[in-house]
Amino acid sequence: MSNKTYLPPKTLTNPYLKDMDEYSQMYKESIENPESFFGHQAKENLDWIEPFRSTHNNNFIRWIVSHIFKLNKSALLNLHITQLLS
Fold this sequence. Notes:
Helix content: 40-55%
Structural class: mainly alpha
Number of strands: 0
Strand content: under 5%
Number of domains: 1
Number of helices: 4
């Protein structure tokens, strides 16, 4: 096994984050204000059949399970297909 390190090309970009500054800002917000941060992310990145009323609690797994059924049907289908393929 080789110990070589291969760096990504400098032109490689992340379609979701502009740079490390944006990542650091998002990370800081997720730690300091998780309810607002994750609520915004869920509203911006998922399609919902009906809006959710709460965003976060001390048991994130219970929260996501109780809210996942409110997701758009196509989003659930995509999730199911992804799980089947992995």
